[in-house]
Amino acid sequence: MRGYQLQIEGSCGWCDDTALNGLRLRCEEGNMLSIQDGNWGGWSGVSECASGYLTAARLKLEGQQGGGDDTAANSIQFRCSNGQDLWAGEAPWGG
Fold this sequence. Notes:
By secondary structure, the protein is an all-beta fold.
């Protein structure tokens, strides 16, 4: 895999925020493999390694909020075999 795309819903006000809803991976040949297509949010542009392939991932999470709205997963950052870090977008919550 050499790239990816995220489906993210931003803040929707007083409704239930869902944040990260979908993930597509881009294959070497350019095909997209859908890991999950969610019901909410828009798709980011494709973020792709300049050379090499995806080797590591870091998940951005929001912890339990107690009385607040829990979004859980908010973004995924990948690293390429050439050391390049990729960002395809993120929801505003978590750390």
